[in-house]
Specification:
By secondary structure, the protein is mainly β. It is 2% helix and 56% strand. The chain has one helix spanning 64-67, and strands at residues 2-10, 15-23, 38-41, 44-45, 48-52, 55-63, 70-76, 82-88, 93-94, 101-102, 107-112, 119-126, 134-137, 140-141, 144-147, 158-171, 179-192. The strands form three sheets. Strands 1, 2, 5, 6, 10, 12, 13, 16 and 17 form a nine-stranded mixed β-sheet that branches. It has a four-stranded antiparallel β-sheet with strand order 4-3-7-8, with no helix packed on it.
Length: 194
């Protein structure tokens, strides 16, 4: 059995969303677990739901403030096989306070809880239609994401939205053939000035 486990955390939203999908390995479309199966997250039973005729998922919601803690995922299949996964979600935080205005000097964003294997993406989006936004992938130095001032030349002065996305992947140890993916999103607004 194959499982896809995705958690999406946005620090501007109260709850973290958890989606679970299972497949038989022949195709990657989500399937119902079957009669007698049981899926629980932190002791809460999850029921299958369908987003289309061929896709089934199981969903949970966790308060953002309680996400960075120990959690337990348990699965009992219709054949009686059991899996138990203890998950310790480490907090990821954008430690840098974003000022109401930033100038065109080098930018540094301090991110706590990331490691060298995490996928990190940054988007700087202005409100002008005639400029290109800035997109940066995986440029961490330790726990700091650096943006050289020359990357800001294509952005107009004025409102600026900063999107920081971090994706962590954690292997499963229970015997399920997949991994847990956690996506953190941070969104900040500021003004870019000369």
């Amino acid at each position: 059995m194959y499982g896809t486990f995705l958690f999406t955390a946005d620090d501007t939203v109260e709850n973290v969303s958890g989606l679970f999908q299972f497949s038989n390995g022949k195709n990657k479309r989500g399937v119902y677990l079957g009669k007698g199966s049981l899926l629980q997250f932190d002791g809460q039973s999850l029921q299958g739901d369908s987003i289309s005729i061929a896709e089934v998922y199981y969903e949970t919601s966790i308060p953002y403030d309680h996400f960075s803690a120990d959690h337990i995922l348990t699965l009992k299949t219709e054949t009686g096989k059991s899996f138990k996964e203890e998950i310790d979600f480490k907090p990821v935080l954008l430690a840098t306070e974003i000022a109401e205005e930033i100038d065109r000097s080098d930018l540094a964003f301090s991110i706590k809880g990331v490691d060298e294997y995490d996928k990190v993406q940054l988007a700087l989006v202005d409100t002008a239609f005639n400029t290109n936004d800035v997109h940066i992938d995986n440029t961490l130095q330790g726990e700091t994401l650096l943006v050289a001032k020359n990357r800001l030349k294509n952005i107009s002065n004025g409102p600026l939205i900063i999107y920081l996305m971090i994706e962590k992947r954690m292997p499963l140890h229970s015997g399920l053939n997949d991994e847990i993916i956690v996506r953190y999103t941070f969104r900040r607004e500021t003004e870019l000035v000369d």
